[in-house]
Amino acid sequence: MQPTSSMKEEFLKKWQMGLEIVRPSIDNTNVSERKKAIKLSADVAMASLRKGTTCWSRALIQKSATEDNFLVRQVLSGIKAETLINKKLTKKVVCHRKIVRRSKKISRRKSRSASEEAAAKAKRIVKKRTQGLRSVVPGGEFMSNDVLLLQETLDYIVSLQTQVNVMRSIVDAAEAEIER
Amino acid sequence: MMMDRATQSEFFLNYTDMSVLERQRAQLKYHHPGFDSTLAGFLSDSSMINGGEFGGFMGASGSDFPVIYGETATGSDSRLSISPDNITTSATFGSGNFKKRKFNSVVTESKGCNAKKVMMNREVEEEEEKSKITEQNNESTMTMKDKSKKEQSNCSKDSSKVTKELQKTDYIHVRARRGQATDSHSIAERARREKISERMKYLQDLVPGCDKITGKAGMLDEIINYVQSLQRQVEFLSMKLAAVSPRIDFDIDDIFAKEVVSAPITTNLPNTVMPSHEMVNSGYPHEMVNSGYLHFNPVQQVVTSSDPLSCFNVNNGQAPSMWDSDVQNLYSSLGV
Q1: Does B146 touch chain A (CB under 8 A)?
Q2: pLDDT class of B229 with cuts at 50, 70, 90
Q3: Which residues of A, range 5-34, sit inside 8 Å of B by Cβ?
Q4: Interchain CB distance below 8 Å, A153 and B240
Q5: pLDDT given for residue A5 in this prediction
Q6: What spans are recorded as compositionally biased (Polar residues) (chain B) (predicted)?
Q7: How many degrees, rounded to 5, is the angle at CA B266 between CA A46 and CA A13?
């Protein structure tokens, strides 16, 4: 599942559109501001590739919309931008499940062998890592189950690879231009 | 005293007989739910036949009634204690041979008829000794016949009875389903785990250096690292672009035009995720990022210390001299 060239081209197109929009901020601010604008436009371009079908892209769009609403609207033109920006991502409350788990824990604590202990430990570690992954992937806390989280992570990684590839080639081209 | 006991036994017998009939019916219905009405008819017929047999046996005499009574009593008592499926067999082997309870339903049904006959015989024997009891028994058999007729005529009553019995069995069935439910839970859990492992396999293919790691926790760790490294790379690249951007601004369309042409070329190389030459040499994401940091250090040296670039302060100092000079040249040419 390497990033395809069509994906790259699409991303480049979107990003170009975004850069056009944020050009004023690129022109007359310091490096950090410029960097922020470039990164924002790249992120929005990446998120718009998925057209709001994935959780992470929706979360990313929402996050960038709080920073630059106009840019997001422009890049998302054609796609239902309003609904994507204003769509409330609901975090599912699984209170009852926690209660059940707690009660289970109490009942299990009484009889535990060494292997069970080890299994519980491994389970805890995996849970921790899953939480870590949730915090790394945008919108991860809205993904209800592990399967969805892994699926979104797959998609997110491919998109990130596309983004990095394109950005790197642009940087290379720019550097080559300057070196000349 | 004997009279009382005899009547008691009769009642027991009648009760057991009825219960045998009903249970037989219920069992049959349970096993062949489609043949409800025909079965009901058949069973009522059989009860009638039994009644006739009972009439025929009136003339015969019994010898050891108390023993029989005791046997029947034990049979009925045992019936109280054991589960409904085994009643017929227990009644059949009223002499206490309870080991044969484990017979399957077909055997039970066939034995059930025998049991009825045996019971009838006992009834007859009892009735031979006491006439009152005979009358009572006649009455009881009459009521039995009436009941059977009623059952024949009032299909609704019968069906309701049977449904009640079935509800009983249904409850048991539901309990069995409860066992199955946990089973289905475990099936669902297994399906979920399979899904997760499948996704993990894809991720293993996608994330470099992840295929050597076994164990979910380690893989998740590696995935997190990779995602973070990619995010940092984006950060770094946008930083780099920001540093170069004044020039990009001037001929941005030019570069983009070039890139659109050159981008498919870079994608044709499948394994070069990072087209940049110094990145290709370092095959590991951390190293990539670190080299990125190294790469970026000169810029940090040029830009004032109050700049938020201080986050790139990792691996400070030892930047390759060629990059140092390069970026310094770049910056001097840009005039930032």
Answers
A1: no
A2: very high
A3: 5, 8-9, 12, 16, 19, 23, 26-27, 30-32, 34
A4: no
A5: 79
A6: 134-143
A7: 35
Mean pLDDT for all residues in chain A: 78
Does the ipTM surpass 0.90? no
Choose the weakest-confidence range: A40-49, B75-84, B160-169. B75-84
Best mutation target among B223, B226, B289 (most A Cβ atoms within 10 Å) is B223
Q: What residues contact B218, with CB distance under 8 A and at least 6 apart?
A: none
Q: Does A124 touch chain B (CB under 8 A)?
A: no
Chain B contact for A151, CB < 8 A? yes
Locate B301 and state its tokens. Answer: 């040296």
Q: Is the pLDDT of residue B39 over 60?
A: no
A167/B241 CB distance under 8 A: yes
Nearest CA in chain B to A121: B217
CB contact under 8 A, A164 and B248: no
Stronger pLDDT, B273 or B16, i.e. the higher one: B16
Interface touch A161/B221, C-beta < 8 Å: no
Among A32, A163, A169, select the one facing B262 at the smallest CB separation.
Answer: A169
Residues of B in contact with A177 (CB under 8 A): 247, 251, 255
- Nearest chain B residue (CA) to A122: B217
User: In angstroms, rounded to a whole number, what is the distance separating the alpha carbons of residues B42 and B28?
Assistant: 11
The answer to whether residue B230 neighbours chain A at the CB level (below 8 Å) is: yes
Per-residue HEC secondary structure of chain B comes to: CHHHHHHHHHHHHHHHHHHHHHHHHHHHHHHCHHHHHHHHHHHHHHHHHHHHHHHHHHHCCCCCHHHHHHHHHHHHHHHHHCCHHHHHHHHHCCCCCHHHHHCCHHHHHHHHHHHHHHHHHHHHHHHHHCHHHHHHHHHHHHHHHHHHHHHHHCHHHHHHHHHHHHHHHHHHHHHHHHHHHHHHHHHHHHHHHHHHHHHHHHHHHHCCCCCCCCCHHHHHHHHHHHHHHHHHHHHHHHHHHHHHHHHHHHCHHHHHHHHHHHHHHHHHCCCCCCCCHHHHHCCCHHHHHHHHHHHHHHHHHHCCCCCHHHHHCCCCCCCCHHHHHHHHHHHHHHCC
- Domain spans in chain B, listed from the N-terminal domain onward: 2-153, 216-334
Q: Give tens-digit pLDDT for A161-177.
A: 888 888 888 888 888 87
